[in-house]
Every structure is written in C-alpha cells, then in structure tokens.
C-alpha cells in the first residue's frame, strides 16, 4: 500500500526536497500535499487514458507536457484562491514537475495500466506523500513556532510560563531531514520486512 | 511494442501541445481578475503596514480608501499621502532580481514605518529585508537632508544609518541605492534643505 509499506517518501525515498522545504508550517504543507496529490492522480489518469496512443520514443516528453500543464493549472489556482500560501510555496509548486514521485508513477504504473487503477495509484501515492508532509508540518510548526495553522497552541496552554521555549532548530530544513529519518526508523522497526538483510 | 511513423509522432505532438496551450490560456485568462485583485490587496496591505494600520485581505481595500490617497509630485512622480505625512514608493534591484518597498515619513522627514519585499533574494540572507525585524530598524531614522544608508555595524544614534543585513551585502547595497533614488526623485517633498553634509550625526532621533 502506497501510504505505508510502499510510502513514496519513507520507503522509495522520493520527493525529499520539497518535504524539507515546505513543512516549516502546517498550512503550506497541507496545500502542497493536496497539490501534489491532485497532480499525481490526474496525470496518472490522463497518461493512462492516452497510453495506447503514446509512442515510446517521445513518451517522456508527452508525460512532461501533461505534468507541466497540471502543475501550471495548480499554480494558477493557488495564486487566485490562496495567494499568501502560494507566495510561501513559491518555486516549490513549479518544482512538482520534477518531483520524482510524479514521473516515477507515470513510468512505472500509468503507462501500462487502465485508467481507474492508475487514478487510484496516483491518489494512494499522493496520500503517502501527504501523510509525511502533514506529520512534518505538524511537528515542526508545533515545536518550532508554538502554533498550529497559525493558532498559538503553546501560548494558550500556558507552557511558556513554565519555562518552555520554542525550538528554533525545528524551523530549519535539516530538522525536517532528521524527522524524516526518525519516521523511517519507526516504520522499519514496526515493519520487519522493510529491513534489508 | 507497436511502432509509429514519424508523421504520426509530429502530428501527435503538435495536437497535444495545441490542446494544452488552449487549456492553459483559458484558465489563465479566467483566473486573471482574481490574481490581480490579490496583488492589489497585497500592495495595499504593505502600504497600510507602513503607517501602522493592521489589515487583513478582506478589509485592506476599505481601510486603504479611508487612510491613503494617491498623488503626484509636481514633476509627475507618484506617491501616497495619509493624515500624518507621506509614503514614498521605493523601487530597485537586489542581488537576484527586483526589490521594492514603501517608506512612511512625517512632514519633517522622520521615518514612521517601512516595509520591503523582494522577488528572489536568498532566504535567510538578502531575503531578510521582507521581515518586520529589518523594517523596524528604519523607524525613527530621518530622510530629509540626505538619504538613509545601510552600513555594516551602523551607528545606532546616527539618524541616517541603518544596520545592514549580515550575509546580504549585495541586497543591502540595493536597498541603499533604492533609498538614494527615492531621495533624489522626491527631493522636492522634503522640508529640510538639501545641502549635503550638514547635520550628519548631530540630529537626535525624534520620535
């Protein structure tokens, strides 16, 4: 299943770059997760519908055109409806085009499977990516800024009076990498069959 | 695997690209008004921030209309007026691309508030100009007889110096140049005389 045993981030180790960049807060992480899921699912669907007409020689180009179109669409929609988040995500929406998860699923699955399974495969992988992004965004925003979705959780709990301080390191990208490492560690401890001999 | 002729490949790619182009143009044109509104609101929020008026995306346009009026200098340079003075637009270039901002001044040339933004400066270095922390360094400085300059280890008591960004020298130089241009462009608005070198650090911060 793409959201656990075959998770694109923690097992296939794809799409790490955007994971580190957009997860300092929960809101951009969720918007990014939705965007990637939409792009993976729809591009899988479209490529799967077109798969019998695509010539092997230009298949990568065709895939890229479709993915780029979807990403530009997503970018335009974000700019129109969630302008502040789209500014925070800046270049990373455009970089969905080069996200290995998208191209990887198109090559590995959509080119050789019917539309409905492809759509499900895309949604599944998108969710796998999303869950990691949301965990990272949740932990990093809570511990790094003491807020969740911009709401000052830590302040309303009153822990600052007990001498609690926000951990500034959580805002930095390296901490996201360490968190991903910890998630992979937990996952491998629980799922023995993921461990290499 | 089935083989395809070259003719098929050419026609296929041409049709594909044409279809994609049509879809993208339709979406772009239909979402344009919303995107333009977002940008306009953002600019208005920046202007309101310089004069210390808190706003959100919903009430920014209304508050803007209440507080700020657009006007021009005698030689046609646009700027803004509010009840406590004027707001000058700043335009310049940083290290990687355009930077811009707004500077609110009272009639004596004291800086009441500033706000900066950038297109593509390095986050954490030059990109720091868009933070409140950087903008607040300008409050209480003066822009009357000479422009404000960004300097490394700036003298805190000098009204014409602001501490530059460490690691963002090129961007800081861009901000200095931008302030110089604004000073030249809007010299006619300053009440102080424009004799250079007078009152360098003898001015105390008036706030």
Q: Would you give an account of this structure?
A:
Chain A has helices spanning 16-21, 26-50, 59-81, 83-89, 91-94, 100-108, 115-145, 153-157, 173-190. Chain A has 197 residues and is mainly alpha-helical. Chain B is an alpha+beta fold and 207 residues long. Chain B has a domain at 79-189. Chain B has helices spanning 6-50, 60-67, 132-136, 169-185, and strands at 69-72, 78-82, 85-93, 98-105, 111-118, 149-151, 161-163. In chain B, the strands form two sheets. A five-stranded antiparallel beta sheet of chain B has the order 1-2-3-4-5. In chain B, strands 6-7 form a two-stranded parallel ribbon. The A-B interface holds A 53, 55-58, 61-62, 65-66, 68-69, 72-73, 76-77, 79-81, 83-84 and B 1, 3-4, 8-9, 12-13, 16-17, 20, 23-24, 27-28, 31, 34-35, 38-39, 41-42, 57.
Number of helices of chain A: 9
Shape of chain B: elongated
Compute the average pLDDT of chain B: 83
Computed over alpha carbons, the radius of gyration of chain B is 23 Å
Number of strands of chain B: 7
Q: What value does the Rg of chain A take, in angstroms?
A: 18 Å
- Spatial strand arrangement across the major sheet of chain B: 1-2-3-4-5
Order of helices and strands of chain A: HHHHHHHHH
What is the overall pLDDT average of chain A? 85
Shape of chain A: globular
**What characterizes the major β-sheet of chain A?**
none
Strand content of chain A: under 5%
Bin the strand percentage of chain B: 15-25%
What is the SS-derived class of chain B? Answer: alpha+beta
Give the end-to-end Cα distance of chain A, rounded to a whole number of Å. 22 Å
Low-confidence stretches of chain A: none
Q: What is the succession of H and E elements of chain B?
A: HHEEEEEHEEH
Biggest sheet details of chain B = 5 strands, antiparallel
Number of helices of chain B: 4
The helix content of chain B, as a percent range, equals: 25-40%
